[in-house]
Amino acid sequence: MKSGYSATVIFMSWYNEVEYIRTQAKKNNELFASSLPMIASENVLSPLCREMLITDFHGRYAEGTPGHRYYEGCDIFDKVEEKAIELAKKLFSCHYADVRPTAGTTANIAILKALIKPGETACALDLANGAHISFGKWGAAGVRGINLISYPFNDEEMNIDIDGAVKLIKKVKPKLALNGRSVFLFPSPIQELAEAAHNVGAYLVYDAAHVLGLIAGKQFQDPLREGADVMSGSTHKTLPGPQGGMIVSNHPGDTDEDRSFLKKLSFGVFPGVTSSYHLHHVAAKAIAYAEHLEFGKAYAKQTIQNAQHLAQELHSLGFQVFGEKLGFTKSHQILLAIGPGQGKQASKKIADCGIITNMNTIPGDEDPLNPSGLRLGTQELTRIGMKKSEMEDVALFYKRALIDNESPKKLKKDIKEFRKEYQTLHYCFKEGFRGYDYHTLVK
Ligand SMILES: *Cc1c(COP(=O)(O)O)cnc(C)c1O
């Protein structure tokens, strides 16, 4: 044997690593089953949607559109995608739906690819005023090389300053007027924005990511009827489907120009920004649309009522809640001002107690890493059966954690006890399912 060389054979199985990941997944299930999950962009998947994720669709490819494929073996999937499109059109009462985008961000990039060229101008909100990164300099809009100009914002009304925005659109004549909001308390003034945009030959793009399920449940605004040319969204926020995105439009495609508009949108998605588009997610989207057609109205209504009641309760307990004059919120969200630069610390503190939220910028914040607010959402608590009276319990947990500074250990125990009664999913078929018990699938 050569010196310095050891021929020891170490026998090790990588299965340990598999068990490690499985253990983490179980722990994560348990965490979310025993806490108050209140991140406004999240939700839990219904059992029937979940079933689609473990079907053979997962392993397959389909490029193109139903009936026009680059791969064989798509005939059955074609029926599923056609049904998903049909249900999406029904849900949003519109002429055109694309269920392929693999995320809300992907849907946005596809739209930007379709409707604007590098160097051209689009108007959008500032990140500090609640815009999403995909319409920001560091996100998709930046990737597309778009020149972004910000709308003026009204802090008190937590909304676009519409007079200022109309003047801006008239002056800069953008290619696109964008409306995308991750802090989305009140409906945007779409009618006025769309009119101003159309007067200068621009399209109005409504990114409904957060509020897609509220719109589909007819409890928010109706962007396609108010003048938006195209609407994108995530299929996993207030629309409680699989993680993914979609695009809808009410352009009828009845003239050459209109057909060309829709064709550009379709080309934006494929070949633009997808190849395989996660067929199991498309199947799960179809089921989520059907469930939302059945239960979406009641779900959206209860979600918003819960947000309004929780905001009122938090305000009464001494929290500074945005939008007071307008009733705090008309969506699933609540924005709290916690103190200058205190958002991160506050979100960590309540996470230790079992309340999962995120720090968020509020108007005036300049450093996104040290924001001054917390953003809350009621869509998941609503889905597991909570109503107005439970919002009073939830508000008290916030007070005990952030105002009374109670011990996180004690609070965590109390929250775990409180959560025991809310373990099944509502507003879906096969309601009784214990939504967080996924790990029982593999024994
Ligand atoms: C969440 C969000 C997105 C991105 O959606 P993903 O599905 O996470 O990619 C886009 N726009 C807005 C306004 C959002 O809030």
How would you describe what is shown here?
- With 443 residues, the chain is of the alpha/beta class.
- The model is unreliable at 439-443 (pLDDT under 50).
- It folds into two domains: 49-288, Type I PLP-dependent aspartate aminotransferase-like (Major domain) (Aspartate Aminotransferase, domain 2), CATH 3.40.640; 296-419, Alpha-Beta Complex (Aspartate Aminotransferase, domain 1).
- Helix 5 links the parallel strand 5 and strand 6 (147-150).
- The longest helix is centred in the C-terminal third of the chain and has 38 residues, at 279-316.
- Helix 2 (47-53) runs antiparallel to helix 11, helix 4 (104-115) packs across helix 10 (256-273) and helix 6 packs parallel to helix 7 (190-199).
- The radius of gyration is 23 Å and the shape is globular.
- 43% of the residues lie in helices and 13% in strands.
- The strands form five sheets. The protein has a seven-stranded mixed sheet, sandwiched between helices. A four-stranded antiparallel sheet has the order 13-14-17-16.
- Bound molecules: pyridoxal-5'-phosphate (PLP).
- Pyridoxal-5'-phosphate binds next to helix 4.
Beta-strand content bin: 5-15%
Within the largest sheet, what's the order of strands? 4-12-11-10-9-5-6
Uncertain spans: 439-443
CATH architecture label name of the largest domain? 3-Layer(aba) Sandwich
**What's the β-strand tally?**
17
Helix content: 40-55%
Distance between the termini: 47 Å
Number of domains: 2
